[in-house]
Amino acid sequence: MTDKPSTHFTKQNQKEMESRFQQLESKSKTITIWEKGKSVREKFSSMKFDKSQMALLLSFDETGISNYLNSKVLYAFNINGVNYFGQGELTPVANNNYKLICNGDLFKSERRENFRLLTYPHYESYIQIPATEEEYEKSNVVSFQTKMSETSLFKNFLKIVDDKDTSAKEGFTKFRVLDISVSGLAFQIGEIEKNYLEQQRVLKPVHIYFNEDILIPAIEIRYIVPLIRGNGSAYKVGVQFLDVDTTTDQRLGKLINSAMRSFESDFEDFLK
Predict the structure, then answer these.
(1) Rounded to an integer, what distance in angstroms lies between the CA atom of residue 161 and that of residue 190?
(2) Cα 257 from chain centroid?
(3) pTM for the whole structure
(4) Crossing angle of helices 14-27 and 246-271, rounded to 10°
(5) CA 111 to CA 27: how far, in whole Å?
(6) First CA to last CA across the chain, in angstroms?
(7) Which of the four CATH numbers 2.30.110.10, 3.75.10.10, 1.10.340.30, 2.60.40.3760 does domain 7-111 have?
């Protein structure tokens, strides 16, 4: 039995693809192109992005003619330490340039052991999701044990888990982040919140606090699993970020990398 790959690939949506390709155009990045099953990798430089055709105009960084003309190819590029992989078709154009038609999917890759940061209990990090009093009232039922509404129970729970919850933005509810990466995070909830979130798929927008406030256009709930706790029911919610632009992606990456370097420094101090 083979080990699972340590690299996780996250599919980019249309808006995210366009953002990445525009970044390539502005910085003239190197793109590596090859054919599946072939060992030869060829280097190209990005020149221009044609949004209407979802195509990149490229110049060939090597002598001669590309081996992969009019072929379905795989390609890869790097933006600020994050690797992207895609599928497309390479065709020749005028002046010895090439067009990469990006008609396949684009994926962002991250190595789990390098990019996922455990934030709790080391860092004060929170996520604020859009949830109003009216939304909680919609599923308001009476508990026969306490004679309290679930809305009231929810408010009491917030006081227990975080007595600073007054810092939550109006119309939002704040939860403690357990771990975070450039593509998503996990946070902790209780039984009452679970009943509400199980009915949701996409929430937008959300705010993340991790040394600074970061606005995420939308998140998709990927799983809700139980956490082992001795004092009651608790659950871990895993979410994926959606529609994140390049600037926000870079901010997240820098914050996570900075925190990881801090851990390395702490370990060096510990060994002294």
Answers:
(1) 9
(2) 15
(3) 0.56
(4) 80
(5) 24
(6) 42
(7) 2.30.110.10
